[in-house]
Amino acid sequence: MHLETNRLDRWRNVPLSYNEVGATAGRLPDGYRHVRIRADLGAGTATYERAVDLLLSWDMHRRAGLDPIATEPTAVVGAVLVQRIQLGPVRVHAPCRVIDARRTADRAGFTYGTLVGHPETGEEAFGIERIAGDRVVATITAFSRPGRWFTRLAGPVGDLVQDLALRRYLAALRSA
């Protein structure tokens, strides 16, 4: 655990890599790729609670195949999450900071923004809510663009990688 703490220390004071902080809550900013996806997870209080726990504890990221380390055990404002992604022999670090987190009886989720050094620049918001008829729905909203030389060079491959991650996040939440 000490080694993990040392790895996270370098990211604690790194600034966000974009200016449109909080924009996933409203109109998504121009100049970025936009993604909004929604998925039905089932119904009932137990489904809602399991999905929320999976989301807020970083387990969604783990089950999606990422190797996350975080400064906090759950998504709280100010927490730093570094997603470690293995691409063949190369390990990529994708640091983010939680800028919003909420949990009520019918809605829960968090938003994180990319830190300088992340392969992308932008923001992702994850939400779970209970709607009419006690249905449980997951929503992911994101805006992003390449943030490093290698993601700019990769072109549309970066979009494919993001789409794959988002599909895996939803699959992980459905497993709840």
Question: What does this 3D model show about the protein?
Answer:
This protein has helices at residues 2-9, 45-56, 59-63, 149-154, 156-174, and strands at residues 33-43, 67-70, 80-87, 90-103, 107-114, 120-131, 135-146. The protein starts with a helix and ends with a helix. It is α+β, with helices and mostly antiparallel strands and 176 residues long. It has a 7-stranded antiparallel β-sheet.
CATH class: Alpha Beta
On the 0 to 100 scale, the average pLDDT is 91
Give the termini distance in whole angstroms: 27 Å
Number of strand elements: 7
CATH H-level homologous superfamily name: START domain
- Order of SSEs, N→C? HEHHEEEEEEHH
What count of helical segments does DSSP give? Answer: 5
Per-chain topology:
Elements: H1 2-9, E1 33-43, H2 45-56, H3 59-63, E2 67-70, E3 80-87, E4 90-103, E5 107-114, E6 120-131, E7 135-146, H4 149-154, H5 156-174
Antiparallel strand pairs: 1-7, 2-3, 3-4, 4-5, 5-6, 6-7
Question: What is the structure about, briefly put?
Answer:
The protein is α+β, with helices and mostly antiparallel strands. It contains 5 helices and 7 strands.
Descriptive tags:
Alpha-D-Glucose-1,6-Bisphosphate, Chain A, domain 4, 176 residues, globular, 7-stranded antiparallel beta sheet, alpha+beta
